Amino acid sequence: MTSGGLAVHEFTVALNEGVADGLMRIVISAPELAAALAPGQFVNIHVPGDASQILRVPLSFSHADAAAGTVEIVYAVVGDGTRRLSEMTAGETSTAVGPCGNPWPTVPAARRACVVAGGVGVTPVVACARMLAASGVAFDAVVGTQTAGKLWGTDVLEGLGAGAVAVTTDDGSAGRRGFTTDALADLLAEKDYDVVYTCGPEVMMAGVARLCRDAGVRCLVSMERMMCCGFGACGTCNVAMADGTYKSCCKDGPVFDAEEVAW
Ligand SMILES: Cc1cc2nc3c(=O)[nH]c(=O)nc-3n(C[C@H](O)[C@H](O)[C@H](O)COP(=O)(O)OP(=O)(O)OC[C@H]3O[C@@H](n4cnc5c(N)ncnc54)[C@H](O)[C@@H]3O)c2cc1C
Ligand code: FES
């Protein structure tokens, strides 16, 4: 099936490993998909093992490596689909629909950015950091989780050249005790960002959007919704807009300008 670049791609699992409490990192080999994906887009994965489960699992990616032909996805095991995905082993095959949705936009003339990740929102945020590093935009990062054991990605962000990586945990077991918004508020007061990119729980993104609005900094958010089709056909993934209209998360998003969204 193809539709405007969207296609069903066969993939082979290259590795699937635990990287933190409840967090897995899968690398799939799918050369055409890896070459087609842009940071911020997502894939819709068929997880084999239960014929009654026909819905695919939508997942962002942290690295699409066109040279290696691989796509890296960090995902939380939360229900049946992601549990079965966590049980796939190297050499197993399935299919992924993609590229789905729109990429993170680059902001013309942006010189300094901040990326803010909450929980498993770190996956598309790492992809965003790769995009910024590749285009020579200096960036800082804020990564927040509930507790130290759930933390992933800070070393990757440092390796990509983040100026500062601020860690927050709800329980204070790593970095600063508190929320990503606490760390972002300090960074916004100290530094002159042109744009903030964020993905995480909706309440966190609403807070990030508010801080950015107050600071006069553009904010781009990656939204999540329950999804059936993943390409604009079923109408299950509506996001309410500030102007009273609705947009689809899968086709019009998942990336939106924070000012567009009705928080
Ligand atoms: C565009 C997009 C990108 C995503 N990227 C990632 C990613 O990179 N890493 C990652 O770990 N997860 C990501 N997710 C979330 C992931 O799709 C869900 O966790 C997954 O579909 C759950 O499937 P399941 O069968 O394991 O659990 P289910 O049994 O379907 O659900 C388990 C629990 O998770 C909730 N849930 C399921 N889907 C969603 C959703 N889309 N949004 C919010 N809550 C949900 C359910 O209400 C339920 O409480 C993304 C979702 C979207 C829409
Ligand atoms: S998931 Fe079907 S329209 Fe978005």
TrEMBL record:
Residue span, FAD-binding FR-type domain: 6-106
Domain of life: Bacteria
Cofactor(s) the protein requires to work: [2Fe-2S] cluster
Species: Thermophilibacter gallinarum
Gene3D superfamilies per UniProt: Dihydroorotate dehydrogenase, electron transfer subunit, Nucleotide-binding domain of ferredoxin-NADP reductase (FNR) module, Translation factors
PANTHER family according to UniProt: DIHYDROOROTATE DEHYDROGENASE B (NAD(+)), ELECTRON TRANSFER SUBUNIT (PTHR43513), DIHYDROOROTATE DEHYDROGENASE B (NAD(+)), ELECTRON TRANSFER SUBUNIT-RELATED (PTHR43513:SF3)
Keyword Glycoprotein: no
Iron as UniProt keyword: yes
InterPro entries: Cyt_c3_hydrogenase_gsu (IPR012165), Dihydroorotate_DH_ele_sf (IPR037117), Dihydroorotate_DH_Fe-S-bd (IPR019480), FAD-bd_FR_type (IPR017927), FNR_nucleotide-bd (IPR039261), OxRdtase_FAD/NAD-bd (IPR001433), PyrK_electron_transfer (IPR050353), Riboflavin_synthase-like_b-brl (IPR017938)
Family as reported in the entry's similarity comment: Belongs to the PyrK family.
Protein name: Dihydroorotate dehydrogenase electron transfer subunit
Keywords from the UniProt entry: 2Fe-2S, Electron transport, FAD, Flavoprotein, Iron, Iron-sulfur, Metal-binding, Transport
Alphabetized Pfam families for the sequence: DHODB_Fe-S_bind, NAD_binding_1
